[in-house]
Design goal:
The structure is a single chain. The chain has one domain. A hairpin with a 2-residue loop joins strand 1 and strand 2. It has 2 helices and 2 strands. It is elongated and about 90 Å long. The chain is mostly helical and about 120 residues long. A two-stranded antiparallel ribbon has the order 1-2. The longest helix is centred in the middle third of the chain and has 61 residues.
Length: about 120
């Protein structure tokens, strides 16, 4: 059960923070770890950055990740919609083929196994 007052302690970029949130502790630790990793990556690429600058650049990278995720979600939604439309076309085609097959089967039963459609009892 998720509490309204989950409070955890995390370390981000070497500084301890107390986080309070509605999510479970595991999730909050995961998010803090993600932010810490982004901060570490920024600092590794430019050791002259202070914490504030690294935090701003990390925020931009996280916002970029988020935006790309939104774009990917929209792309996947479009693909799902296209696949659903294609599936409907295939269903309709399948129904048409079944109907056609049933009609051919009925015709075959009425006229026999001959390749022509002339009834057996009729003379040529």
């Amino acid at each position: 059960m998720v509490s309204d007052n989950n409070i955890i302690e995390v370390r981000i970029a070497g500084t301890e923070y107390r986080l309070k949130g509605n999510e479970n502790n595991e999730y909050m630790h995961k998010i803090a770890s993600y932010v810490d990793k982004k901060m570490q990556d920024i600092v590794k690429s430019n050791s002259r950055l202070n914490t504030s600058m690294a935090a701003i650049l990390s925020s931009i990278n996280i916002a970029d990740d988020l935006h790309k995720s939104y774009l990917e979600i929209e792309d996947l939604k479009r693909k799902i919609e296209q696949l659903q439309e294609e599936n409907e076309r295939y269903k309709a085609e399948h129904e048409h083929l079944l109907k056609d097959n049933r009609q051919r089967y009925k015709t075959k039963n009425i006229y026999g196994n001959n390749k022509n459609t002339t009834p057996k009892n009729e003379s040529r």
